[in-house]
């Protein structure tokens, strides 16, 4: 898989207000976690956005290089987003060693959704329950995603972790019976249709009362 690069800067954690100053200057505070102590860094907000666009939502290794030319092979462990501004507040990178296994979270990519048998022929609905999977692998074996083909999935059927395709060098860490995706019957659509019909019948049976309520409502609005 393709590795990506990102330039970072070592940040001073001893000064108060540094985090807000960094954010105001277009930087994102971050840490590199590894076998030793965490290293405090910052990354350009614009550079990280470009990196996310290049990665495209898949799992990826990122080689970080600081101002001293020191490198660290990492993957993104977590991203903290401000609930109000929706901006990234902090990033945690996890350093990995070449040739050594590590744990990562990889997104699940559904294939064949539009041609799913349960959807096309039975009116079913795809229920994507597991959006990402925890795996263990060496850096050179990290997949961008776990592909799951739902073409043959029928209503009432599900694909579990044990049903997933084997990927060379990748170990799934989730419980084997965990549901990844299923095809549910169109009960919601049917219930909605029945509810609409019931409301229509009820409306037809009491037209005068509804009109009186509407007139009273309009009268009250005009007085206000």
Question: Could you explain how this protein is built, in words?
Answer:
It is a single chain. This protein has 224 residues and is of the alpha+beta class. It folds into three domains: 4-96, Ribosomal Protein L25, Chain P, CATH 2.40.240.10; 103-185, Beta Complex (RNA Polymerase Alpha Subunit, Chain A, domain 2), CATH 2.170.120.20; 190-223, no CATH class. The chain has helices at 18-24, 45-55, 117-122, 187-205, 207-223; strands at residues 4-10, 27-33, 39-44, 62-65, 71-81, 88-95, 102-111, 125-128, 132-137, 146-149, 158-160, 171-172, 179-184. The strands form three sheets. The protein has a six-stranded mixed barrel with strand order 1-3-2-6-5-4. The chain has a four-stranded mixed beta sheet with strand order 10-7-9-12, with no helix packed on it. It has a three-stranded antiparallel beta sheet with strand order 8-13-11, with no helix packed on it. The longest helix has 19 residues, at 187-205. The termini are far apart. The model is unreliable at 200-224 (pLDDT under 50).
How is the secondary structure organized here?
Blueprint: E1 4-10, H1 18-24, E2 27-33, E3 39-44, H2 45-55, E4 62-65, E5 71-81, E6 88-95, E7 102-111, H3 117-122, E8 125-128, E9 132-137, E10 146-149, E11 158-160, E12 171-172, E13 179-184, H4 187-205, H5 207-223
Parallel strand pairs: 1-4, 2-6, 7-10
Antiparallel strand pairs: 1-3, 2-3, 4-5, 5-6, 7-9, 8-13, 9-12, 11-13
Give the strand order, joined by hyphens, for the main sheet: 1-3-2-6-5-4
Please provide the count of β strands: 13
**Which homologous superfamily in CATH is the superfamily of the largest domain?**
Ribosomal Protein L25, Chain P
**Helix content bin:** 25-40%
How many domains? The number is 3
Instruction: State the helix count.
Output: 5
- Secondary-structure content class: alpha+beta
Q: Which descriptor suits the 3D outline?
A: elongated
């Amino acid at each position: 898989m393709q590795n990506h690069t990102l330039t970072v800067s070592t940040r001073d954690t001893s000064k108060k207000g540094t985090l807000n100053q960094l954010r105001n200057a277009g930087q994102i505070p971050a840490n590199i976690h590894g076998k030793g102590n965490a290293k405090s860094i910052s990354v350009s907000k614009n550079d990280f956005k470009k990196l996310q666009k290049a990665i495209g939502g898949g799992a990826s290794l990122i080689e970080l290089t600081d101002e001293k030319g020191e490198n660290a092979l990492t993957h993104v462990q977590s991203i903290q987003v401000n609930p109000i501004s929706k901006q990234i507040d902090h990033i945690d990178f996890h350093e990995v060693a070449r040739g050594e296994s590590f744990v990562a979270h990889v997104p699940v990519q559904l294939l064949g959704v539009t041609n799913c048998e349960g959807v096309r022929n039975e009116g079913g609905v795809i229920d994507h329950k597991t959006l990402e999977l925890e795996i263990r692998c060496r850096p050179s074996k990290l997949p961008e995603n776990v592909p799951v083909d739902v073409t043959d999935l029928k209503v009432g059927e599900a694909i579990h972790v044990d049903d997933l395709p084997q990927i060379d060098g990748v170990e799934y860490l989730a419980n084997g019976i965990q549901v990844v995706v299923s095809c549910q019957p169109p009960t919601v659509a049917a219930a909605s249709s029945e509810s609409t019909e019931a409301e229509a019948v009820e409306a037809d049976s009491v037209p005068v009362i509804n009109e009186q309520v509407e007139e009273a409502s309009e009268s009250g609005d005009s007085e206000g």
